[in-house]
Amino acid sequence: MQANIVCIKWGTKYGSEYVNRLLRGIEKHLQMPFRFLCLTENSEGIDKQVEIHPLPVTPFDEGAFDARKGGETWRKVGLFQPGLAGLEGDTLFLDLDVVLTGPLDDFFTFEPGRFCVIHDWLEKRRAWMPGRDGKVGNTSVFRFHPERHSRVYQHFCDHQAEVLETFRIEQQYVSRTLMDDLAFWPEKWVCSFKRSCRPLFPLNLIREPYQPSEMRVLAFHGYPLPDQAIAGYQGGVFKSTLPATWLSAHWKDAA
């Protein structure tokens, strides 16, 4: 069995070192053979072991989307375009700023063929609210089947105005479109630095961020970014953290 893993890099926020860190983490934590692809408009500095492919085609004005808060994540809809990079079978997508910390093989044997994704931490807590069911994934780490789940792209192409009026962010749309195939990763596998590691105020000011023992992937949504978390983050009394010294072994040393 060969594992397919893909990431997207565009613009200037994340450099080639983010792609190379992912590669080093995959080599360290994945036992099975793998194919690692980066979809990008600029491959300069990316390790030669990484397959380079063009950015996925998207059916919208990318410049306008990128200018919106969180709008750039809609580019992920392009991953579901039929025939993308010749991908076949279950494919794992990783955001560039996730940190790989533990075994990855189970991400390819868990619920084969289904759309597997992080159970979004905030949406899970909001399940009690009227009009919400909590069944929304966070697409920092998800696995999809290019042929089986291509309706995400096709439906968006046919109903773009309706989709954008109904859904604020891409992960809400993708989760709803694939609801019949939706499965959440085991909670301990994928953790959030904000939700799983940062102590609550006022302990965040005096205690180093926690390191979950069974964590395999650590997601960074918003701020801090991994480098900031390692150095210590100043974001107001509630969001600041002391340096996460344990994180450097998984992040800096992987570059």
TrEMBL record:
Matching InterPro entries: Nucleotide-diphossugar_trans
Protein name as catalogued: Glycosyltransferase
Annotated source species: Novipirellula rosea
